[in-house]
């Protein structure tokens, strides 16, 4: 027997909903449009809609029309999930800060001058060497199966060797391969830190740009680096259920390097008080003037330090290859969590990374990067001197990607980020790295854009300050620029 016409209409609408064309919340065509489309009278359309309403797929809303209220999940009998939109805030993780979401979106906008990007310029990418590595891998590889829980064994051996060149002796069994240092931080937060515990960290810090730790009920307690530094003095109220997160080399966002004396003091205090340390060392190789002091991990006698590294900053973030180094039982625990979350990082990326490190190209590549970073840093400091010295002070980074600007009083503005964006320049406002920032800092990167575009970006920032309406003559000349030891 032929399907009655109202059924055909109902099936048509159902199909649109189940294949996702009409998502929950979509207003479906009006009764008049449907009756014209199917050449039926209105009452047939109404019968079809009544059937869909009875199934809970659509709902008539006065003054609006008929709205899709449920999706394929209902049809599969999956219970009461009604609308993804209603569930957006239900998971345990908070959304990123709105500014961070905007930065993430705009970082792929080619029309903007990217002074924000914490990434090497594509011109630094060692394409020829990488082609050699990938061609070799393409002939040598056997399969891309699931890797071991701690990651590809050869890669862990190569990382172990790589770290030993920087004075860190660790066996491959103490290394976990992760999809970038960020995943390492996730695993540590999920697996090793208790709810209602406290994480000490530098203020400002990269970690404030994530909401991960707070989502998990971990309080971030920042210490002003220039006032106290991360010294034992700052930890006067120390008691259990605390840990310390630190970026001792080319700190993000300030660029600071923790002096050796402070490292020794810190490691001694943390060991005496059983305060575990998360050492985020992903910029370590990118020194410009002199190699930084030894890592905290290399001074760690008692397994207090979890050490994070990555290829993101020195080679390419798209590989998503990073590592966590720590005591074996801790690494085993993190490896188990990693298996539960993704069964391991991409085997393809791990092969490439192992071949890359094993090829010997890495050292010469990083040496080239350092030289190029030096040229860029020096040029950008000159641009800053020429264009922004009336409006800001800054510290001279001795490595890494970033210059941290402190805006002078009359020009402090919470809207700097938006104003710069309007002028086609993406910057990172200090507010994403701190809890109490009122527009007095910005972070700019000298690693990503070409120098002429960086200069353009800086002149746009200058125009913003000029348009602020403050009499330039009333602005004190910039203090003579001098490197400042933030942990001093
Ligand atoms: C201090 C710090 N840690 C971790 C990360 C994340 O790096 P990855 O790409 O290795 O996940 C970043 C990225 O900007 C960073 O600046």
Automatic annotation (TrEMBL):
InterPro entries (alphabetical): Aminotransferase_I/II_large (IPR004839), HTH_trans_reg/aminotransferase (IPR051446), PyrdxlP-dep_Trfase (IPR015424), PyrdxlP-dep_Trfase_major (IPR015421), PyrdxlP-dep_Trfase_small (IPR015422), Tscrpt_reg_HTH_GntR (IPR000524), WH-like_DNA-bd_sf (IPR036388), WH_DNA-bd_sf (IPR036390)
Taxonomy, superkingdom: Bacteria
Claim: Cytoplasm is one of the keywords in the record: no
Keyword annotations from UniProtKB, A to Z: Aminotransferase, DNA-binding, Pyridoxal phosphate, Transcription, Transcription regulation, Transferase
Ranges where the HTH gntR-type domain occurs: 3-71
Cofactor: pyridoxal 5'-phosphate
SMART domains, A to Z: HTH_GNTR
Entry annotated with the keyword Amino-acid biosynthesis: no
Gene3D superfamilies recorded: Aspartate Aminotransferase, domain 1 (3.90.1150.10), Type I PLP-dependent aspartate aminotransferase-like (Major domain) (3.40.640.10), Winged helix-like DNA-binding domain superfamily/Winged helix DNA-binding domain (1.10.10.10)
Gene Ontology MF, one: pyridoxal phosphate binding
Entry similarity comment: In the C-terminal section; belongs to the class-I pyridoxal-phosphate-dependent aminotransferase family.
PANTHER family documented for this protein: HTH-TYPE TRANSCRIPTIONAL REGULATORY PROTEIN GABR, TRANSCRIPTIONAL REGULATORY PROTEIN
Full protein name: PLP-dependent aminotransferase family protein
Species: Rossellomorea marisflavi
Lineage: Bacteria, Bacillati, Bacillota, Bacilli, Bacillales
